[in-house]
């Protein structure tokens, strides 16, 4: 019997030595993470007391080095509380609360080569994030990471909204189709964010934040006996296949934050600022020159591109008449592009750039210019930025990167930081998803990485369902340059591809996008001819692109959404529905005291036949009033509310 108790005693010692377990809860006990360090590194996540992820594993594989993440021991642990409020430059809220509990575990392999890492978890009320820090004295050896095996193991075959990018070399412009987790296949390359309905009162989204000198992450089906898992898959370096090198680094080095956003409703995911909170504070000492806004666009959207002085001035006139601060001069302004001899500082011979810029200045408009990414790479980028600054250019739209491997991630950062030194804002197209870097360098005002309105020119894919899915999927990562504002509105039955481009859904739906979609630089897609004298143009003169407060009043993924945004003492409302007619009721309990005048643009009674028809109304409302929103199939509702004296 004595021998039995001694054996049991030693077993307990060994068990707790081998398995170190930690639990961290969020400041208001909404989210919890449990971490187990033993034969492998695993973690569990719960929300409101209900499990979300279980037995999820963190592991790394290297070329010419053993895997890492097995048989680790805890050398040291530390915890702290982060509780700060900071002011964003690119704002949809005037102040952001960063409040979480952080656990740092210093781990070491029990066996040779006895490498060390720090595993850092941050637990917010609206999500869980973790990253791995590769540490140690060795700062000479270059490690070649071939795989990061981070798994996200759900307990059931939940519905998810996942975009199959199909390749690691893509513009990340795809639909987020509703699927079961079990439907995901190894042939898919699932982009981020991926949103999951865990239960009626729990939604999760997997994405990443602060990608620094690392590869972008995608998802593949995981293999788990206890649930339905997905696992990380990193974008390979150029000229490497899926099994080649993903990341090369020297110690010390950090992975991006792996993020599980959490909310009781889909709208709570949209309101979350966890991605921004996981990035470093603004690194620009005086960011006062960063002033996003609405922008006209002389693109082929409304007719094949015409790079001539008259056309560009026509769009400058549009921006001036609308009160928009910017006009985007798109491709071919410097002649041939994506060629070895392309010169991004030499203006095409038919253009009078000094005259154009002088004309824009006289109209109180500043210009952006488009550049092909390969032409940036081959140029002296610092010299080019200095040239643009001397011209008075406001920003650059850089296109066709179509990758997020480690080299490209580093290229993005070099481009943005150099542009910042010359007071240039940046809009990336052909781009990978946002990761919150705009907090650190807010001159990165927006990016594409979204199937936007331009797809209406050649496809049937920009459906009302797609448009009301985007806020709960792609937009969770950050601003998206969807280019709203198409005024050739058509019902699905009447919609046709062509030039000038039409859009599916109603005029009110397009107006609502200016409120629902985040993009501090919002590029309106249509031509002056299609805007002139049209119903709803008044709203585009009034709407803002940055906000002092944001509230999601309702929403179901792929079905509908209603957003309320405040700018100063004015509120704006945008509501969108899918292909079903819908009536929603919202309560104006977010208003301040006193009376407000609500100017609304609603679907006309016959908008289901003539999608361009919109009705303007004006009523007096007060805090607590209810408003009934009636939307046609593919319809919308847009309004602004101003205090009455």
Name the descriptors.
TIM Barrel, 645 residues, Beta-galactosidase, Chain A, domain 5, 7-stranded parallel β-sheet, disordered N terminus, alpha+beta, 10-stranded antiparallel β-sheet
Ordered list of secondary-structure elements with their pairings:
Elements: H1 2-18, E1 20-25, E2 31-37, E3 41-47, E4 50-58, E5 60-62, E6 65-68, E7 72-86, E8 96-109, E9 116-124, E10 127-135, E11 142-148, E12 151-154, E13 159-162, E14 177-180, E15 194-199, E16 202-209, E17 217-221, E18 228-234, E19 247-250, E20 253-254, E21 257-263, H2 266-271, H3 274-277, E22 294-297, H4 309-322, E23 326-329, H5 353-362, E24 366-372, H6 373-378, H7 381-391, E25 395-399, H8 406-421, E26 425-428, E27 444-447, H9 464-469, E28 489-490, E29 503-504, H10 507-516, E30 522-523, H11 528-531, H12 537-542, E31 549-556, E32 560-567, E33 570-577, E34 582-587, E35 595-603, E36 614-622, E37 626-631, E38 636-643
Parallel strand pairs: 22-23, 22-30, 23-24, 24-25, 25-26, 26-27, 28-29
Antiparallel strand pairs: 1-2, 2-3, 3-4, 5-6, 5-11, 7-8, 8-9, 9-10, 10-20, 10-21, 11-19, 12-18, 13-14, 13-15, 15-16, 16-21, 17-18, 31-32, 32-33, 33-38, 34-37, 35-36, 35-38
Helix pairs in contact: 4-5
């Amino acid at each position: 019997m004595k021998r039995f108790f001694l054996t049991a005693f030693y077993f307990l010692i060994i068990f707790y030595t081998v398995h170190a377990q930690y639990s961290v809860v969020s400041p208001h006990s909404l989210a919890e993470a449990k971490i187990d360090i033993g034969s492998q590194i695993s973690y569990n996540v719960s929300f409101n007391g209900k499990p979300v992820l279980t037995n999820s594993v963190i592991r790394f594989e290297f070329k010419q080095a053993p895997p890492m993440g097995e048989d680790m021991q805890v050398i040291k642990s530390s915890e702290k509380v982060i509780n700060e409020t900071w002011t964003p430059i690119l704002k949809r809220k005037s102040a952001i609360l960063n409040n979480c509990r952080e656990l740092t575990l210093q781990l070491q392999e029990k066996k040779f080569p006895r490498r060390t890492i720090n595993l850092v978890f941050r637990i917010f009320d609206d999500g869980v994030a973790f990253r791995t820090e590769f540490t140690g004295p060795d700062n000479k050896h270059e490690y070649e990471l071939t795989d990061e095996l981070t798994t996200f193991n759900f307990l059931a075959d939940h519905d998810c909204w996942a975009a199959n990018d199909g390749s690691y070399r893509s513009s990340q412009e795809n639909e987020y189709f509703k699927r079961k987790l079990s439907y995901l296949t190894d042939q898919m390359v699932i982009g981020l964010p991926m949103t999951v309905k865990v239960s009626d009162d729990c939604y999760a989204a997997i994405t990443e934040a602060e990608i620094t000198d690392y590869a972008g992450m995608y998802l593949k089906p995981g293999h788990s006996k206890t649930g339905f898992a997905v696992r990380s898959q990193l974008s390979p370096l150029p000229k490497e296949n899926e099994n080649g090198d993903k990341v090369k680094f020297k110690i010390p080095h950090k992975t991006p934050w792996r993020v599980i956003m959490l909310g009781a409703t889909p709208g709570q995911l949209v309101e979350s600022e966890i991605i921004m909170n996981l990035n470093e504070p603004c690194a620009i000492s005086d960011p006062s020159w960063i002033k996003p806004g609405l922008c006209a666009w002389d693109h082929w959207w409304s007719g094949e591109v015409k790079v001539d002085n008259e056309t560009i001035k026509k769009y400058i006139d549009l921006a001036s008449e609308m009160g928009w601060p910017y006009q985007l001069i798109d491709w071919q302004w410097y002649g041939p592009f994506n060629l070895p001899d392309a010169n991004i500082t030499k203006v095409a011979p038919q253009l009078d750039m000094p005259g154009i810029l002088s004309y824009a200045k006289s109209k109180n408009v500043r210009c952006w210019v488009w550049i092909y990414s390969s032409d940036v790479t081959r140029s002296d980028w610092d010299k080019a930025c200095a040239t643009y600054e001397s011209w008075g250019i406001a920003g650059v739209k850089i296109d066709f990167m179509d990758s997020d491997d480690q080299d490209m991630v580093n290229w993005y950062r070099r481009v943005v930081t150099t542009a910042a030194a010359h007071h240039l804002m940046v809009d990336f197209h052909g781009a990978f998803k946002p990761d919150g870097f705009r907090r650190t360098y807010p001159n990165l005002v927006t990016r594409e990485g979204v199937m936007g309105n331009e797809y209406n020119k050649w496809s049937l894919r920009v459906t009302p369902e797609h448009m009301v899915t985007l806020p709960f999927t792609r937009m969770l990562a950050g601003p998206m340059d969807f280019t709203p504002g198409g005024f050739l509105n058509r019902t699905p039955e009447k919609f046709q591809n062509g030039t000038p481009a039409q859009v599916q859904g109603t005029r009110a739906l397009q107006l609502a996008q200016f409120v629902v979609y985040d993009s501090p630089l919002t590029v309106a897609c249509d031509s002056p001819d299609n805007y002139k004298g049209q119903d709803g143009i008044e709203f585009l003169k009034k709407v803002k692109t940055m906000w002092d407060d944001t509230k999601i009043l309702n929403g179901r993924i792929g079905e509908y959404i209603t957003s309320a945004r405040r700018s100063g003492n004015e509120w704006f409302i945008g509501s969108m529905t899918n292909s079903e007619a819908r009536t929603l009721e919202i309560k104006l309990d977010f208003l301040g005291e006193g009376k407000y005048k609500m100017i609304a643009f609603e679907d006309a009674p016959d908008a289901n036949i003539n999608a361009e028809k919109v009705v303007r109304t004006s009523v007096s409302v007060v805090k607590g009033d209810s408003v009934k929103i009636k939307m046609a199939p593919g319809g919308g509702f847009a309004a602004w509310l101003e205090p009455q004296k």
